[in-house]
Amino acid sequence: FALNSLTRKAVEKYAVDKAIMHFETEGWKVDPSPQKNRPFDLLCERNGETTHVEVKGTTGTGAPVILAHGEVNHALENPERAVLFVVSDIVLQLGSGSDLNLSGGKINSLYPWIINQRDLKPISYEYSVE
């Protein structure tokens, strides 16, 4: 939560790039285009199998990660296709000017991603004031 929006975007892009490289190395065809209106980041195909990869990047330990309502619902409804790919311990260094240099990162890939609802902890609520 402490990172500003530019830093968060850089960390997310770094994690997505690592995920793409990981899945391509394992022989998956990866669609890296933004999955608009879909609760996952990457669409991967290999030998007639399709997976939906949700990527999380963090400078922290990666335990826990923040999941959106749609990401959780999608994983619960599609356990045979859902993958959670977490890149943790990403190192941020300020380069020349305002450039960020990112490096490192530990990978934890959950496939299949089977969510135990006891492991979910609500952290926010929507409240209607009308």
Helix proportion of residues, in percent?
10-25%
Gyration radius from CA atoms, angstroms? 16 Å
What is the structural class? alpha+beta
Strand content: 25-35%
Largest sheet geometry? 5 strands, mixed
Mean pLDDT: 91
Alpha plus pi helix count:
2
| Number of beta-strand segments | 5
Low confidence ranges: none
Principal-axis shape equals: globular
Question: What's the arrangement of secondary structure elements?
Answer:
Blueprint: H1 5-25, E1 29-31, E2 42-46, E3 49-57, H2 69-77, E4 82-94, E5 100-110
Parallel strand pairs: 3-4
Antiparallel strand pairs: 1-2, 2-3, 4-5
Which short descriptors sum up this protein?
single chain; 130 residues; alpha+beta; five-stranded mixed β-sheet; 23% helix
How would you sum up this structure, described in words?
It is a single chain. This protein is of the alpha+beta class. The chain contains two helices and five strands. The chain has helices spanning 5-25, 69-77, and strands spanning 29-31, 42-46, 49-57, 82-94, 100-110. Strands 1-2-3-4-5 form a five-stranded mixed β-sheet, with helices on both faces. It is globular and about 45 Å long.
